[in-house]
C-alpha cells in the first residue's frame, strides 16, 4: 500500500489505527466519488459504512494495493446495490410545497352559495333583516373576514359573528334553502 501524499510505500508496515488511517486517507475521496456518481442517497454515510466494514478485515486482505483497492470497491459496490434496493422499496419522498397545494376546505355556507344561482342568493338575502343581509353580503359574497366586515359596518367582531349566526339560522329555516342543506 502507498501513501496518497507521497506515492511511496511507508517505511514500516502500518498496523492498527495507523493502517486504517492511511487506507482511509488514500481511498475515502475515491469511494465517496464512486458512491455519489452511482446515485447513493447519502454517499457520505455509505462511505463510512464501507470503511467500517473494511476495518476489521484489513489484515486479511491479500494482493497488495490492487487487492486492497479491489476489496474496498467491492464493499462500496455492495453498499451501493443495497442503497438502490432500499430506494426502490421505499416510496418516493417529495417535498411539500404549500404554494402548489390547491386543496381547500370550504364551509357548508360556501358550498350552498355555489349551488345557488345569483338571483336565488339575492332573493334569499332579501328575506333577511338589513343588518344580517349586510353581514352575509360582506362575509360570503364579498369574501371579507370577520374583522374586515366589523370595520366596514362599524360593529365589533363579536356582533358580526352573532349577526352571521342568526342569518344562517334564518336561511336554514327558509323552505327554498332546505334542499341545499340536506345531506
Describe the overall structure:
The protein is mainly alpha-helical and 183 residues long. The chain has 9 helices and no strands. α1 crosses α3 and α2 packs across α3. The N terminus is likely disordered.
Q: Average the pLDDT over all residues and give the rounded result.
A: 81
Cα-atom radius of gyration: 36 Å
Shape designation: rod-shaped
Number of helices: 9
β-strand percent reads under 5%
Assign the structural class, choosing from mainly alpha, mainly beta, alpha/beta, alpha+beta, or little secondary structure. Answer: mainly alpha
Name the quaternary structure. Answer: single chain
Question: Which regions are unreliable across 5 or more consecutive residues at pLDDT < 50?
Answer: 1-13
Give the ordered list of helices and strands.
Answer: HHHHHHHHH
Helix % is 55-70%
Largest sheet: none
Distance between the termini: 79 Å
Q: How many strands appear in the DSSP assignment?
A: 0
Short structural summary:
By secondary structure, the protein is mostly helical. The chain has helices at 17-37, 43-54, 64-89, 108-115, 118-126, 130-141, 146-153, 157-173, 175-181.
Write the layout of secondary structure elements.
Layout: H1 17-37, H2 43-54, H3 64-89, H4 108-115, H5 118-126, H6 130-141, H7 146-153, H8 157-173, H9 175-181
Helix pairs in contact: 1-2, 1-3, 2-3, 6-8, 7-8
